[in-house]
Write a structure and sequence with these properties.
This protein has helices spanning 2-13, 28-43, 90-105, 113-122, 132-153, 157-160, 182-196, 218-230, 246-258, 273-282, 296-304, 321-333, 347-357, 371-374, 402-405, and strands at residues 58-66, 69-76, 81-85, 168-174, 200-204, 235-239, 264-265, 287-289, 310-311, 365-367, 384-385, 388-390, 410-412. By secondary structure, it is of the alpha/beta class. Helix 7 (182-196) links the parallel strand 4 and strand 5 (200-204).
């Protein structure tokens, strides 16, 4: 069974036949060596300081709003600037940003960003806020600092964070529906393929943190119907959003295996790691998970114990690019792919940079269908071609004119 599962993983990202450590039965010496290798991979420096010879002292960090987006703007004492876009949560998380994160960074050298990510966690006991509500605002600040450092050094995110390994990223589009009928969903999936040129899709199964379909019988009927409607040319992913206990998740996973799905995302409660591992152990189909995770140690456990086959840190929820790259490096030790989860409309831009520098990224990344809104922010404008997205090429995040973009933006006072 595991050999079949490895074949799926090879398809996802060139994964070889890694050794699997049975939970609770690995010999202590082998387990200790594996954990040491994971720890070592996670602790290696990530940020390249090429072209950053002088201190970059942070003078201010502001939160601005324009239209439906919040922007985080960082400025150095020498007048350099960088910006980031939130994940649609600044409306209610801005007090944590302005009161618990921004004060730490003022006066600090931005080049020491990696150490700051740990020190701000300890600052004024911020570790007591551990969770998505803390790490998301910290990610915004990290993104803005990286943008500033990239503009100073003339490097893109990918170049600063390990080196660019690809310029185009194959994508899937996700439906996001759960309350429609199987027939309506299958038709909608076909429409998405036609509109976006995607070669892969993802639909939702189960009840999203619930045990029952919103439309009775939807999951069992949708799975085979999707393959019938889309044909063999389109690759299929399924996301349960923490819907199932292990027994039912395995039943659904078997049906997904019958249609040769790419992966089964978050089948069980996201914080029930053992249940998820039971599903991963039982299926040939790769199981993906980690979008709600904020602990490096739990990610290390998932990778060490093979609790999932594909790790999915959310670049916002997990606290930014650097922390997520550390997860990807641990996964690479076990020859596992890392497919970033996306929150926020602009989030797919950060995903493109993450995918551009991550060797073992998996077959497809999610496209949020926001190119019409954000594509012209870049020069050249972003484009889709042959089922793949172009990675931004400019310095930092690649936005061509941040000052023009922020013209008429309103300052949000914390």
């Amino acid at each position: 069974m595991k050999s079949d599962r490895r074949q799926f993983l090879k398809y996802l990202g060139g994964v070889g036949g890694a050794s699997f450590l049975p939970f609770g039965h690995a010999q202590a010496q082998e387990a200790e060596a594996d954990m040491s290798a994971l720890k070592e991979a996670a602790e290696k420096p990530v940020l390249t300081l090429k072209g950053l010879n002088d201190p970059v002292i942070i003078e201010s960090i502001d939160l601005l709003k324009k239209g439906g987006d919040h922007f985080i703007r960082v400025r150095s004492k020498d007048g350099a600037e960088g910006i980031a876009v939130d994940n649609n949560r600044a409306d209610y998380l801005y007090p944590i940003l302005m009161q618990r994160i921004v004060p730490y960074f003022i006066g600090k050298d931005a080049r020491n960003l990696e150490s700051h990510l740990f020190d701000v966690y300890r600052y004024h006991s911020n570790y007591k806020l551990q969770g998505l509500a803390f790490w998301s605002p910290l990610a915004w600040v990290e993104f803005a600092i990286l943008d500033m450092l990239g503009r100073i050094s003339g490097q893109s995110y990918a170049e600063m964070l390990g080196g660019k390994v690809r310029s185009w990223v194959p994508y899937y589009v996700a439906s996001g529906h759960r309350h429609n009928t199987p027939e309506e969903e299958a038709d909608y999936l076909q429409q998405l393929v036609e509109e976006t040129g995607a070669r892969a899709i993802k639909f939702r199964v189960g009840g999203r943190m619930g045990r029952r379909d919103h439309v009775p019988g939807r999951t069992d009927k949708l799975i085979p119907l999707s393959r019938k409607v889309l044909g063999e040319e389109i690759d299929i992913h399924a996301d349960a959003n923490s819907s199932y206990e292990a027994k039912r998740a395995i039943e659904v996973g078997r049906k997904l295996e019958e249609i040769n799905a790419v992966f089964f995302e978050e089948p069980c409660r996201f914080d029930h790691l053992l249940e998820t591992k039971r599903v991963a152990d039982a299926l040939k189909l790769p199981v993906a998970g980690g979008e709600q995770e904020f602990s490096q140690y739990r990610f290390r456990w998932m990778i060490h114990q093979r609790g999932v086959d594909i790790v999915q840190p959310d670049l916002h929820y997990y606290g930014g690019m650097i922390r997520s790259i550390r997860v990807a490096r641990m996964a690479e030790v076990r020859e596992m792919p890392t497919t970033a989860h996306i929150s926020g409309g602009f989030g797919f831009i950060y995903m493109l940079h993450f995918a551009a520098r991550t060797p073992r990224i998996g077959a497809y990344q999610e496209y949020k269908r926001d190119l019409d809104k954000y594509g012209d922010w870049f020069d050249p404008p972003l484009e889709l071609k042959d089922g793949a997205m172009a990675v931004p090429t400019g310095p930092g995040v690649g936005i061509k004119d941040p000052q023009e973009l922020l013209k008429d933006a309103e300052l949000v006072k914390g």
